[in-house]
Write a structure and sequence with these properties.
The protein has 377 residues and is an alpha/beta fold. It contains 12 helices and 13 strands. The chain folds into 2 domains: 259 residues, Aspartate Aminotransferase, domain 2, CATH 3.40.640.10; 101 residues, Alpha-Beta Complex (Aspartate Aminotransferase, domain 1). The chain has a 7-stranded mixed beta sheet, with helices on both faces. A 4-stranded antiparallel beta sheet has the order 10-11-13-12, with helices on one face. The chain has a two-stranded antiparallel sheet with strand order 8-9.
């Protein structure tokens, strides 16, 4: 009974078949020829990705092999100097914090952590105070990974724009889960993955780069740049393409890219037909049961647009019992550890945050089963 879509969703049969068909084509004609024959399909990826987030153009999209790769590229490309202030939240995922700390340490900049409560309360006045005090970059997640907190990314975008701050949004847990509009968000970059709520294959993701964003490419190859030679063929410079594809490398998994393209198409269709309501209702029902159980503490809001229900046990000694109960009835849910959320992890001695994440395609019987188990616990 699969309820771990915040980790990785199950691909649709059509997406699976597209991946396999391209791999078979590569066996028949070779990878290079297969890519040439699939060029129009490859270009459709950029179109579909742009549509999914309301990007101004497909040229604002770069394919990456994971959201972590995309995150690293964007953070490494930030124009951060000695003494600059970068703001993030205590609810951020561990990988995000690692690379922010690395970047600010190297640049001798200051990383400011705005603490958030388990209920997701965020003080926009405090965010504006940080901007007034000299914060030049804001980096945060749209939806957090370990609970139902959805950050006010659109309101923060207005503030960032007002003060001329660079604004980076991690959308790993939002795209396919919550509608996304990067133009309304006013972000300079938006990073997401394919394997989670989009139902794409593992090893896929993409970056949105706002036109004229002050983010530099940290890696180059012949797909994104070319040498500039003088009349004697001496190297005198580089010509780097101006759009988001400057963040791509030439070598990539075309079969996975095509699978992601179909997954995004299906997700775009789901949004249009409002099937998000199924996922939201499933998750809200689970959160109500969690909140009614005195042994459990929910992370985030009981009512949320997010499909993630995160909670922990008030008594750490009962953790193994709940884990075993889920296993015994065949429930596939995930647990998150301290390294996943190092600055917003419970301090009562628990080792796990439980994360239950249904999707729109989830069998309602699975939802009923997990609710029954939580009621009995």
């Amino acid at each position: 009974m699969y309820l771990n879509n915040a980790g990785a969703s199950i691909t649709s049969e059509t997406t699976h078949n597209i991946i396999v068909e391209h791999l078979q084509l590569e066996r028949q004609v070779g990878a290079y020829q297969a890519a040439t024959l699939s060029e129009s399909k490859i270009q459709d990826f950029y179109v579909q990705a742009a549509l999914s987030i309301n990007a101004p153009s497909p040229n604002n999209i770069a394919f990456v092999d994971s959201a972590s790769r995309g995150w690293n590229l964007v953070i490494e490309g930030l124009p951060i100097n000695k003494g600059d202030k970068i703001l993030t939240l205590s609810s951020e995922f561990g990988t995000n914090l690692i690379n922010l700390y690395k970047k600010t340490s190297i640049c001798k900049a200051e990383l400011i952590i705005h603490n958030c409560d388990f209920d997701g309360t965020l003080d926009l006045n405090k965010i504006e105070d940080f901007l007034k005090s000299g914060v030049k970059t804001i980096v945060l997640s749209h939806a957090i990974a370990h609970g139902s907190i959805v950050n006010p990314v659109y309101e923060i975008g207005i503030l960032a724009s007002k003060y001329g701050a660079i604004y980076i949004v991690d959308g790993c847990q939002s795209l396919g889960n919550i509608p996304v509009d990067v133009q309304r968000m006013k972000c300079d970059a938006f990073i997401t993955t394919g394997r989670k709520w989009l139902r794409g294959p593992r090893g896929t993701g993409f970056i949105y780069i706002k036109p004229k964003a002050k983010i530099k490419e940290s890696q180059l190859d012949l797909s994104s740049s070319s040498l500039v030679l003088d009349k004697n063929e001496a190297i005198i410079g580089l010509h780097i393409i101006k759009n988001a594809k400057r963040f791509e490398l030439w070598e990539r998994n075309i079969a996975a890219l095509l699978g992601l393209t179909n997954a995004i198409k299906e997700s775009n269709s789901v949004i249009k037909t409002k099937l998000f309501s199924n996922k939201e209702q499933y998750a809200n029902n689970i959160r109500k049961v969690v909140s009614a159980n005195d042994k459990l503490k929910i992370i985030g809001s009981i009512s949320s647009k997010s499909g993630i229900c995160g909670f922990f046990l008030k008594n750490p000694d009962l953790e193994s019992s709940l884990i075993n109960n889920f296993k015994n009835i065949g429930l596939n849910v995930s647990t998150m550890n301290h390294w996943n959320s190092p600055l917003q992890f419970p301090k009562n001695g628990v080792k796990n945050i439980f994360r239950i994440s249904p999707h729109y395609y989830t069998n309602v019987q699975y939802v009923d089963s997990v609710m029954d188990e939580l009621i009995k616990f």
